[in-house]
Amino acid sequence: MAEQRLVTRTQFPASAESLKPRLKKAPEFPILEKQNWLIHLHYIRKDYEACKDVIKEQLQETQGLCEYAIYVQALIFRLEGNIQESLELFQTCAVLSPQSADNLKQVARSLFLLGKHKAATEVYNEAAKLNQKDWEICHNLGVCYIYLKQLDKAQDQLHNALHLNRHDLTYIMLGKIHLLEGDLDKAIEIYKKAVEFSPENTELLTTLGLLYLQLGIYQKAFEHLGNALTYDPTNYKAILAAGSMMQTHGDFDVALTKYRVVACAVPESPPLWNNIGMCFFGKKKYVAAISCLKRANYLAPFDWKILYNLGLVHLTMQQYASAFHFLSAAINFQPKMGELYMLLAVALTNLEDTENARRAYTEAVRLDKCNPLVNLNYAVLLYNQGEERGALAQYQEMEKKVNLLKDSSSLEFDPEVPEEHPSSQGHHLFLWSQSPLWKHNQLKHQHK
After folding, report:
1. Residue 192: CA atoms inside 13 Å, Cβ hemisphere, count?
2. Can you give the residue ranges of every domain in the chain?
């Protein structure tokens, strides 16, 4: 029987396929990583509840050692506003993988969002040691140094970021540093380079246009604002700035047309309602002006320019007590502006509080070294009080300022013409409107 079996087995030759080595079974994912694909899928689909369920299951199976699951859980916590919880989880990831620069970047990001800028810079510096060619680390370090008021270090880091990789956001932050330093020329140079790099970025075009507008270079301002509106006709910042330019030149109806478009996009904008109010003021519709300015004041109660304009309109309407109220509030927020004290003195004079009016004029003269109307109005008050010598001294000082204005300006000085004065300034806007000068007529201060 054994021989028969042997013969049976050797009776047929073995197939060639059986001689081939058997294919190996596909390797299984390690248990720590087997659900990562599903976690990633739910996360990018923004199905966060399902993602958290898978993460919970994965962490239970791995006893909390799955780095990717912890990382994504921290990202979800941050999106939900639980910054402290996200920080703790990112720190856990950094412990599990101490050589990962990405984990340290996320730790620093959470610290930054918690307002711990110094601690964030320390962690970013540690991350930079692990990855010296990451522009994002340099950029975020620069932003942290801005908040720490270390502007020189911030500039160095932002320049390093641009050297590694050019980004619009880095140019914007670098320009903001120069604006904080009050160097408009350098800020303009930075934004010009940014526009060359990204010519279709409406935020860059709008900001550059606003800087030119602040310097009074209206042609270039209009050019860049026009380009911004070409790429984005609904860009409310550019529309608001263009409207303010028209308002500055006295074209109130066209400016109001522009502002009507902005009101549809941002109906709760304080600069918008401030400028609308000053348009009505220019059209001598004082009740409408006060209504709009009070809405602006409701939206931004600490903006001194809105309070200034409210005081100005109330003075025009001879509502001196209300003018005193708003001008006093403006002085509390802007105590170094001489013109505010002058207008306050005008209100006090009409309220027959001569003593405090003189004090206000004295402070205005001390603070304002350029505006001749401060000295002129003070001279009028002193003359009306019978102090001719003091009035003469103020009048002579006024003449000196007028001569300086004539020498420094190619235009002939005309005290009858309203001057330009800042009426509103939004987050990144430098908006202007006309505010009248105050002159003396007979025995009263009147608005021309």
Report:
1. 11
2. 36-126+138-144, 296-448
The strand pairing partners of 145, in sequence order, are none
- Other beta carbons within 10 angstroms of residue 169's beta carbon come to 14
Q: Give the tokens for residue 317.
A: 């309407």
pTM of the predicted structure, to 2 decimals: 0.71
The letter for the amino acid at 19 is: L
Domain 296-448 classification at class level? mainly alpha
Structure tokens at 79: 């999106």
Q: Residue 124 — φ and ψ, nearest 5°?
A: -60, -40
Say which DSSP state 357 is in: H
Q: What is the DSSP string of 383-404?
A: HHTT-HHHHHHHHHHHHHHHHH
What are 326-350's pLDDT values in tens digits?
A: 999 999 999 999 899 999 999 999 9
Convert the pLDDT of each residue in 8-32 to its tens digit.
Answer: 444 444 444 444 556 666 565 556 6
Instruction: Give long-range contacts, CB 8 A cutoff, 24+ apart: 228-231.
Output: 228/202, 231/200, 231/202, 231/205
Counted residue by residue, the chain has a size of: 448
Residue 189: what residue type?
Answer: E
Bridge partner residues of 424 (DSSP): 431
User: Which CATH code fits 36-126+138-144?
Assistant: 1.25.40.10
Helices (H), 232-319: 236-248, 252-265, 270-282, 286-299, 304-316
Please state, as a whole number, how many other Cβ atoms lie within 10 Å of the Cβ of residue 402: 16
